[in-house]
Amino acid sequence: MLHTINKSPFESSTFETCVRFLQPGDPVLFIEDGVYAAQAGNRFSSLIETVMKNNPVFALKPDLDARGITRVTEGVGSVDYEGFVGLVEEHQVNSWL
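Predicted structure:
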């Protein structure tokens, strides 16, 4: 199951809620304002590092760029729209709104 998170973790608890439901191997993709979670050195970095022990974590590159985020937590992959589509084709999607 691909988990997409589009809300800023500074304004919503969707990321933290999502983590409780992750199964090993489920990818997490931050999109829209959700990419703020992936920014390096914020209070969510340690949670992302914990998640990455069992799950791949990605951030949508165009959304990172649009928000001026140039540094992400080490290990977080960035995907373009083509990569996003690839993840959707490979997995069922659970959108955390």
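Summary: The domain at 2-96 is CATH 3.40.1260.10 (Hypothetical Protein Ychn; Chain: A,).
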